[in-house]
Design brief:
The complex is a heterotrimer of chains A (about 100), B (about 100) and C (about 100).
Chain A lengths: L1 E9 L13 E7 L5 E10 L8 E6 L16 E6 L2 E4 L2 E5 L3
Parallel strand pairs in A: 3-5
Antiparallel strand pairs in A: 1-2, 1-4, 2-3, 4-5, 6-7
Chain B lengths: L1 E10 L2 E2 L8 E7 L10 E5 L8 E6 L2 H4 L10 E6 L2 E4 L2 E3 L9
Parallel strand pairs in B: 4-6
Antiparallel strand pairs in B: 1-3, 1-5, 3-4, 5-6, 7-8
Chain C lengths: L1 E10 L2 E2 L8 E6 L11 E5 L8 E6 L1 H8 L8 E6 L2 E4 L2 E5 H5 L1
Parallel strand pairs in C: 4-6
Antiparallel strand pairs in C: 1-3, 1-5, 3-4, 5-6, 7-8
The chains are: A mainly beta (about 100), B mainly beta (about 100), C mainly beta (about 100).
């Protein structure tokens, strides 16, 4: 999994019917030091994330292993909302600070 | 399956169903010399490991099969704690200094 | 399947149950001429390979689970053969039998 920040959403009226009623969010990937990378992914939201949230997303066939995405054309899914993380004991990111 | 070093811990209270109680950790994949191999990523720690530990992990669909509930959106899972890896006359093991548990 | 060289061993005393009593090897993918290509992996040894051997590895979960006869094994990389010799364009690039004599 990789960590990223929800920076926006995608609305598509004409799409595969299996993607209907699925929230698509634009996630900008961050590295372990919380530095944003020039890498973006559009992921289906399975946990109710919102704009500005730091999230974890899974890719590939693993992304279809949720009730929302099973047997649907989806290769990236937001599977957790990150509260905080540390590197070697030093706090790097804190949602509620 | 790859060799990696645990470098940090991730806390997430809102998780996809089936992932409650499964710890998430930052890992840095390593090559046989102990040098970084690609970017760090977050993996589910199926076995008990902590920062500084040498581990092996699997990526892709197989990662979910290692989890307590196998129908989960997981694409990287730590499968084991590596006490020692030996290659080219060099032993790799738990980091002695630096990372604290 | 990919060609690889066994570059080391991995000792993992704490790991998921399917890996217990299996030997783990550090594997460096190589081109036919022996150049290192791609990421170093860890694989299960199912061919009695040793350090220095060139081997064939599977790096795909479905095939790995078939070999282990376990449809839920979180395993992806398996050493399935020790290579005797490799030949490209009519030239022998590697010969295990020479190494032995």
């Amino acid at each position: 999994m990789l960590i990223g920040k929800v920076v926006g959403s995608v609305v598509a009226t004409r799409k595969d019917e299996k993607l209907e009623n699925r929230k698509l969010l634009v996630v900008q990937v961050h590295d372990q030091h919380d530095q944003p990378k020039d890498q973006y992914v559009v992921a289906v939201d399975a946990v109710g994330a919102g704009h500005g949230d730091m999230v974890l997303y899974a890719t590939g066939s693993s992304a279809r292993q949720t009730a929302l995405t099973e047997n649907r054309p989806c290769d990236a899914v937001i599977m957790a909302i990150v509260d905080s993380w540390d590197l070697g004991g030093a706090n790097v990111y804190e949602k509620w600070s | 399956m790859y060799l990696a070093r645990v470098i940090g811990r991730v806390v997430a209270s809102t998780k996809s169903e089936g992932l409650a109680g499964v710890p998430l950790q930052w890992i840095q994949p390593l090559d046989e010399h102990g040098a970084a191999l690609g970017d760090a990523l977050v993996a589910c720690a199926v076995v008990s490991t902590g920062p500084g530990d040498l581990v092996h992990f699997v990526d892709g669909r197989e990662a979910a099969l290692a989890c307590p509930v196998t129908f989960v959106p997981v694409d990287a899972a730590i499968l084991g704690y590596v006490e020692q890896a030996y290659a080219n006359g060099v032993f790799l093991g738990r980091e002695q200094q630096g990372a604290e548990r | 399947m990919i060609l690889a060289e066994v570059v080391g061993t991995v000792v993992s005393p704490v790991q998921i149950p399917v890996l217990e009593r299996e030997t783990l090897l550090l594997l460096r993918p190589i081109a036919p001429d022996g150049r290192a290509i791609g990421k170093t992996r860890i694989g299960l040894d199912r061919a009695q390979a040793g350090v220095g051997d060139r081997v064939l590895i599977l790096d795909e979960g479905n095939s790995a689970r078939q070999i282990l006869s376990n449809k839920d094994a979180a395993v992806k990389t398996i050493v399935v053969a020790v290579v005797d010799y490799v030949e490209t364009d009519g030239v022998t690039r590697y010969d295990h039998r020479e190494r032995r004599s």
